[in-house]
Amino acid sequence: MRPRTFLGGALALAITTQAQGQALCPSVGQRPMIFGQLVFQVVYPPDPGGADANPSDVFYLDFQSGDPPSLVKAPLPSGMMDALNPVFSPDGAAMVFTAVANNRHDIFYWPIGSSAAPINLTGASPSPNEDARFSRDGSEMVWKSDCNLFVAPFSYDSSHQPVLGASTQIVTGSCGQTSEASAPTFSPSAGSANPTAGSVFYFLGSTGPSGAAPEKIAAYSFSSRTSAAPFAQSAQNYYYFPVVGSTSSRLFYVSGGGSDKIFTYANADAISGSATAFAAADVNSDDSDPTPVDDDLFVFSRDHNVGGNASYELYLGQPSTNQCWSLTSWVSFPNGDNVLGATYAPVATTPWSLNGPNYHPGNAASAPGSAGGARWWW
Fold first, then answer.
1. Most buried one in 137, 158, 349, 373, CB count within 10 A?
2. Whether 230 contacts 217, CB under 8 Å
3. How far is CA 204 from CA 38, 214, 226, in A?
4. Are 230 and 243 contacting, i.e. CB atoms less than 8 angstroms apart?
5. How far is residue 328's CA from residue 193's CA, in Å, rounded to a whole number?
6. Which residues of 32-67 are buried (b: 16+ CB within 10 A; e: fewer)?
7. Which distant-in-sequence residues (6+ apart) come within 8 Å of 209 by Cβ?
8. What is the radius of gyration, based on Cα positions, of the chain?
């Protein structure tokens, strides 16, 4: 089962019922320490008869802020809803996410902890926009617009406000059909320093009628300016959600023909051989939405059974030891049906202030400081 399905070009959660046992990571004892930050989305139960059929929020978690770590929720002004797909800005000090405003999806930029409303980065586009990701050097942003993929220069002005430059379409999808391009992510070498280096991984979604071909992962090469399959993929299985993090050389993706499992290639810029499956997978559950912490650890979502409903929680996985740990035992996540779409990043390189009404300090003090580029609390 896939935790997400694409409906009319918009990303929504498919919350289904399954007769499956509770799937928990069995690892016990001391878990690895994480020094960094995480953003993720929480999807709440549908509001029967309400205006929002799939309500969701995006949150920021600072692993250095205390035990349990503090949570910050991005504020959604009146008229904005369904926040999802959060990632970090290139400097790590802001959250970039998709939300619905003015009856369509757009991509928003929000300095973490700010009381100001999020900035719409794609409001000038004539089409709905979602699924933003940044190159490792922070110089470019790739995203989905309607059913196509675009890339544009990303920078900051003298006041450190985000500036998205003129866009270039790199992939043309078939809107409403079986080749809608989604979830783009840069390979490690891609960026403006070498415009012909690297690629963008993405998947072609099955948004057409029932029985359409399963999703497949493709890669757009900046050198050849063409797309091709980056590795062999079974016709019967689906492949989706490719991810390359800011701190790992690995390509992660999700695949399955029944239950979903996470696979990796060691070098996203030079894929060869066979993918490695995460051995701590549970045959009765689905794993999805991986985000690498480093070349040894990654955070992912795993479903479990609550009252017959399959819902997702966050876990920490370690392929080198085939172990995983539930983050729910450590972090007080907001109540919701699903916790999905996490993205990890090292500590921010730009100071920020927690002056907004959405800051929830937990056991940490309310004033941040920094030393050597890391966040500390006093």
1. 137
2. yes
3. 27, 9, 15
4. no
5. 40
6. eebebbbbbbbbbeeeeeeeeebbbbbbbbbbbbee
7. none
8. 19
Mean pLDDT (the chain, rounded): 79
Contact 361, 68 (CB under 8 A): no
Q: By the 8 A CB rule, do 317 and 298 touch?
A: yes
How far is the C-alpha of 337 from the C-alpha of 311, rounded, in Å? 5
| Planar angle of CA 189, 194, 197, nearest 5 degrees | 50
Token couple for 359: 């800051």
Distance CA 133, CA 143 (A): 6
CA dihedral (265, 269, 270, 273) in degrees, to 10, reads 10
Q: Which residues touch 285 (CB under 8 Å, ≥6 apart)?
A: 20, 23, 259, 302, 303, 304
Give tens-digit pLDDT for 248-286: 899 999 998 778 899 999 999 999 999 999 887 777 788
Instruction: Find out whether 222 and 140 touch, Cβ atoms under 8 Å.
Output: no
Show the 3-state SS of 229-243. Answer: CCCCCCCCCEEEEEE
Amino acid at 167: S
Q: How many Å apart are CA 348 and CA 368, to the nearest integer?
A: 12
Q: In angstroms, rounded to a whole number, what is the distance separating the alpha carbons of residues 102 and 81?
A: 10
